[in-house]
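Can't paste images in this forum, so I'm doing it all in text. The chain is below; anyone willing to post the predicted structure tokens underneath?
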Amino acid sequence: MIPTRRVSLFLRRVVSVPAASFAVGILAVSCWPARADASLVVVTALARPPLPAILRAMESGAEDIVDFALAGDRASVVAEAARLRAAANSKAVESLARSGGIATKIAQLKGRLSRVAQLARAHSFIAVALAANAVSQLMPDLYSRFQDPVPSPILRLDYLDREAQLRSLAGQPEKIALAVRQLRPTWASVRPKVIAAGGAMEAGAYQRHVAAMNRLEATAAKRVQAEAVRGLELVDDLERVFVR
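Text version of the structure:
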């Protein structure tokens, strides 16, 4: 069996290979010995197209809107929301909507971006931030259809920690509890990949964060918010494990 770390390094190099080389890579991998259960992982990853830049830009823009809203910066919220709504109607997104299997998700993405833009000018900042985080909620599934060095469940961890923070600011303890309940299984699904990629220290830190979130009472607003923000910082560390 090919060691997991070697497979990871191989895939990281493949991300920068021109698209025309993918077919050659798939053919070469398919000729490896039959013991290649790891080979099947490589083939699957190679078969996925590179992550479209428009998706990465939308994910980053949604996070920016949350930050602007939390900072009380109405002008930046409005400007970024308008930019993302325009991007949602671009040819690049229309092309994605025609690709296999994600038309429904792209329609949801466009609808959520439109809602952010509708709320941006006059609604409360927390309402805008929650709407922007609902855009981020779609990204793990969308990213999973493409090749990216960071496993898509890590994006879901980012969404869940942010959701817990925002629901606490909104005074919605039942929705905090829902987000926190989803942290543990999501983390369990990606923890082995973090460790295999050389992130044992980062995995240990995030494991302690998940345990801390599950111990907190949803009504302990300040403590929930502080621990959720710590989780967001730890997610950044998890992402760096796969791109360093």
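The domain at 51-139 is CATH 1.20.120 (Four Helix Bundle (Hemerythrin (Met), subunit A)). Residues 173-196 form the longest helix (24 residues).
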